Amino acid sequence: GVAGIVLPEKDEKVIGIRKGDAIALPFGAVTWWYNKEDAELIVLFLGDTSKGHKAGSFTDFYLTGTNGIFTGFSSEFVSRAWDVDESTVKALVGSQSGKGIVKLDGSIKLPDPKKEDRERLVYNCEEAPLDVDIKNGGRVVVLNTKNLPLVAEIGLGADLVKLDGGAMCSPGFSCDSALQVTYIVSGSGRVQVVGVDGKRVLETTVKAGQLFIVPRFFVVSKICDPDGMSWFSIITTPK
């Protein structure tokens, strides 16, 4: 697909997006996401919601649509803010009847992506050099300030892990008190999480599409099924 991204005090970047892309979006970024192909496009949003308008939920500000910011202002205010006549305001604000996801008219053409706009914004975890490569075990790609400097502003890091069938990810935890959110991309396996007091707090089987959280200082380990398993985690430290 294609994404348009406007970072605070920056010009709009229009990027082509494909499987494996990790995109760093700081607070205040304005985005649009467009799938011009027939194939399904799935975008997984992971982030820190503790300081959201409603703690635990993303705070999205839609510009237009049924719950859009500009829908709540009178046409007089919007026309003066945008410096357009009121009939144009009504078309811009009122033409989108949906909430969040809309079907575009075939005559609408969005900007084409620019290859150079991907720099500093996107890191493809499927194509990146491997940070860990264990024969018959698995592979790891780590996303941090070295390969995507923008994560320093966000305060989050990430990794993509792929285990071969029957392989194990040894027990581990973050020594700088980071917590971890893990989304299972494909395959299945068993996971155990143990607290600092030595008590097991989670033992379950996970599969593609499921997500679980490892609290600060808790230790996690995984053993995948014969078909293997891959997961994407974000960690609350850019290091």
From TrEMBL:
Organism, scientific name: Linum tenue
Keywords: Disulfide bond, Seed storage protein, Storage protein
Listed name of the protein: Cupin type-1 domain-containing protein
Keyword DNA-binding (UniProt): no
Domain called Cupin type-1: residue spans: 128-239
Gene3D superfamilies cross-referenced by the UniProt entry: Jelly Rolls
Listed PANTHER family: CUPIN TYPE-1 DOMAIN-CONTAINING PROTEIN (PTHR31189:SF72), OS03G0336100 PROTEIN-RELATED (PTHR31189)
The keyword Cell membrane belongs to this UniProt entry's keyword annotation: no
GO molecular function: nutrient reservoir activity
InterPro entries per UniProt: 11S_seedstore_pln, Cupin_1, RmlC-like_jellyroll, RmlC_Cupin_sf, Seed_Storage-Functional
Stated family: Belongs to the 11S seed storage protein (globulins) family.
Top-level taxon of origin: Eukaryota
